[in-house]
Amino acid sequence: MKLVKTVFLSLSLLFIFSATTKLQAQQWLTNGNTLYTLPAHKVGIGTLATDRPFESRFFSDNYIRVTSLGGNIFSGYASGIELKRGLWSGDELIWTVQNEGNFKINRNDNTVFQMAHDKAWLGTSVDNPLILTINGESIGYTGQFFDGGALNINSKLGGTVHNLKIDGNQMESKTEFHINAVSEQDLILVKGGGKVKIGNTSSNARLSVEASDKFHLNLENKATGGASWKIGVADQSWAAGSGKLVFTKTNSSANATMVITPAGNVGIGVVTPSRTLHVNGTTRTKVLEITGGADLAEPFDLTEETAVEAGTVVSIDPVQAGKLRLATQAYDRKVAGVISGAGGVQAGMIMGQEGTMANGQYPVALTGRVYVKVDAQYGSIQAGDLLTTSDTPGHAMKVSNYEEAQGAIIGKAMSSLEHGKGLVLVLISLQ
Asked: How far is 411 from 367, CA to CA, in rounded Å?
């Protein structure tokens, strides 16, 4: 009986071993290069060796398809791939890549990326944003083309393809680059004391514009009655002259309405101002306050060949029309005035006309306060005395013969001189 039981047990174990071996053999299914390896939990398609749970390998185009069928619209059902990460604690993190009409990438139940056939969205909402980091190259320029960059944007407008390249430091475009070309939104630079630099990188100004052979600013109003103004700093090639700040309504600096020279001279209607303010035209003002001089003068040429000092009394030259000469006789009714500038008191206003007889080298005071050369040998001078010409060339004297002085009076003394020659402040009033 024991022998029978032993034989029966041996046969049973042999049967179980044989069945198990046969079952394991059936779990290996091959068809050419297609291999299912269930005991190792690996599936290979087109390969006999894979180190991944699943691999599909072909020496041509290769697709893996996940299909969902049914419904009347594409968004009704989804097909996709789910990637689940589980912890020993039971917590799970699930990412899905799916086709639901739109292409979506979801994290758990939140869509973080979605793309339709003509647009894409990154981030769940403005209240739940995402950061996109692109590690790209710096923009380069080879021949006629840009290369590199981290982001390349193309669009087509009016038959022209516009390309904008962006990297972490710059934006480059071979065509016009517009900001707010359609909308009327503000362009604001605020925090950090930012600077805007156009054409240069070195200026410390808030706004710096550098240009060569071009105007720096073009201000244009295209509405009815509007106009265009151009502003630029001239170089030696500009008609207005090098270094000037030019304001013009044309494309030529030669037609500048106003210029400012490096020396600070301002020209209005003239591009070569010879004075601090040089106006070619009519100036109109309610009040003109002059703080640099105290008399009204006109420029005259003198017949004298040598230089004549300020404060000198001059008379009309009867031989050379429009010119003056030193006054050399007492009570000279041809007296014209006094050369301005003596005693540190300059002419406040000089009137003349360039290119005509009404111009000259010496500013002659016709009215106002001016220091005058006086000779007191003809009588001591006190404030309030009337002055006329004297026999001392270019000097005035006190009027002692009022009848003879009619028509020869220079003005009224405002300071005194007891004796000798000197300067006396005079209120010019030709009579």
From this structure: 9
Beta bridge partners of 373: 423
Which pLDDT belongs to residue 8? 42
Give the whole-angstrom CA distance, residue 48 versus residue 154.
45
C-alpha 358/C-alpha 364 separation (Å) is 12
Low-confidence ranges of the chain (pLDDT < 70): 1-40, 192-193
Quick: pLDDT tens for 14-48. Answer: 443 444 444 344 444 555 555 555 556 778 888 77
Q: Do 241 and 220 meet the contact criterion of CB atoms below 8 Å apart? A: no
374 contacts 356 by C-beta, under 8 angstroms? no
Q: What are the percentages of helix, strand and coil residues in the chain, rounded to 5?
A: 10, 40, 55
What's the rounded Cα separation, in Å, for the pair 359 and 362?
9
Distances (CA, A) of 352 to 83, 300, 418: 94, 9, 37
Which pLDDT score, from 0 to 100, does residue 30 have? 55
Domain boundaries, the chain: 2-56, 74-122, 212-279, 295-429
Looking at residue 34, its pLDDT comes to 55
Distances (CA, A) of 284 to 298, 354, 386: 20, 20, 36
Q: Which CATH class is domain 295-429?
A: mainly beta
pLDDT at position 36 is: 56
Q: Is the dihedral of CA 192, 196, 200, 204 positive or negative?
A: negative
Bridge partners, 345 (sequence order): none
